Amino acid sequence: MDKQAKSYIRQNYKWNFSVNALNEAFWVLSNHLASIITLLPVFVKKLGASNTVIGFIPGIAFVCIMMPGIISANHIENKPNKLAFVKKITLFERVPFLVLALSALFLAKSHPTLTIWLSIICVVFIFGTSGIIQPAWLGYIAKVTPSRKLGTYFATGNGLGALLGIGGFAFAAYLLSKYPFPYNYFWIFLCASVAVFISYWTTLLGREPDVFEKKEKTSNLDFFKELPSVLKKDKSFKHFIIVRNLQCLGSMATTFFTVYAIQNLHFQDSSAGVLSIFLAASQSVFFFIWGYIGDQKSHKLVLTAASLGLIATSALLLILNSWLSLCLVFVSLGMYYSGIGCSGLALLHKMAPPGRYPTYIALYNSLQVVSAFIAPILGGWISDVYGWRNMFWVALVFSLSGLLWLQFFVHEKRNQNESTNLVSE
């Protein structure tokens, strides 16, 4: 990287940190209000979807966000300006939020099955476009943010998003109780649309210099042939992917927590919004905690604590069946999500050789895709056929296995990406 580019990054660091954190915050808020974990499962359940179909929605979402990056990563690594690539296609992940709102208003009552399918299609577009963009977006973030501040960046953006989510979920709970179905969901999804277009506006404000990486252009065929050697050379990275696969399977129950509360514990529909507040509040608090611990101490330590949060979600429901237990479950889930969101990508950045972060992101995502896809579908099937408790037991075993694998086989490296240490404190 030449001196002019380094100077440009230093001069615009605070601006980029601010607009990118706001971008992250409003994107997180929009995803909270159209959450595939809390509100959207209840929406499609009210439309008549089975647990297996409900499980299919996050399953296909995970496939869509994890798979496309392996195709786009090679193209992105040779791009001198990665943000420009994001700006070109990001509308495809934002317009579907408005489609969700309009389908709830005009189709849900008269054509419930069609609305279920439209919801799935919207999920495909939102997460599929995100999957294509993610290596470029994170490559841009890694370029304009010091490596020692990456945890703080992820914590700030996601933590602010979770704070906004508390208000959003409180408003969602009010809408769920104030208006009849499906008009309550129209207003919720409309609010998500507003948030996602504010996020789009901040995307346009980012500043990135053109920097040509000193990397020979590789054909897509050669790029794919090279990928197995990346895993062979970096054993810790390979084991980290195994950990994430085990945790994906361990999270099979998370999609069904609100459905379980409404069906089996006879909670009101508005409880989806109330429980979501506990999730958002927990994420907000823990994001800021994990950001500090990860950057100052260890990102592996954060991931260990997050793993304990995932274990607690299933263990609590096996021990207790009450309002308190569900609140604690969502606090634990927030602890898990924030830990993965803050330190998962930061630890990955430490593992990646200079200039190869997009490739590591793409491999990291694509090699979780099978587990991420089948986990909620498997969870829905187990709960339909064998009951909720058996599904919680299976999730607990996978979650515990992930924690043990993390402890014994994943090692945290010193950062190899010197280009992200350009900005002075």
Write the layout of secondary structure elements.
Elements: H1 3-11, H2 13-33, H3 39-46, H4 51-66, H5 69-77, H6 82-89, H7 95-106, H8 112-144, H9 150-178, H10 183-203, H11 220-233, H12 235-250, H13 257-264, H14 271-296, H15 299-319, H16 323-351, H17 357-366, H18 369-385, H19 388-409
Taking the sheet with the most strands, its summary is: none
Strand segment count: 0
Measured distance between first and last alpha carbons: 20 Å
Q: CATH homologous superfamily, by name?
A: MFS general substrate transporter like domains
What is the C-alpha radius of gyration, as a whole number of Å?
21 Å
Overall pLDDT level: 86
Number of helices: 19
Helix content range: over 70%
What is the fold named in CATH at topology level? Answer: Growth Hormone, Chain: A
Number of domains as seen in the coordinates: 1
What is the molecular shape?
Answer: globular
CATH architecture: Up-down Bundle
Pattern of helices and strands: HHHHHHHHHHHHHHHHHHH
Name the CATH class. Answer: Mainly Alpha
Estimated structural class:
mainly alpha
Uncertain stretches of 5 or more adjacent residues: 418-425
- Percent of residues in beta strands: under 5%
Key features?
425 residues; mainly alpha; Growth Hormone, Chain: A
Task: Describe it.
There is one protein chain. With 425 residues, the protein is an all-alpha fold. The protein has a single domain (3-211, 226-421), classed as Growth Hormone, Chain: A (Up-down Bundle). Helix content is 77%, strand content 0%. The chain contains 19 helices and no strands. The protein has helices spanning 3-11, 13-33, 39-46, 51-66, 69-77, 82-89, 95-106, 112-144, 150-178, 183-203, 220-233, 235-250, 257-264, 271-296, 299-319, 323-351, 357-366, 369-385, 388-409. Helix 7 (95-106) runs antiparallel to helix 8 and helix 16 (323-351) crosses helix 17. The protein is globular, with a radius of gyration of 21 Å. 59% of the residues are buried. Mean pLDDT is 86; it is low at 418-425.
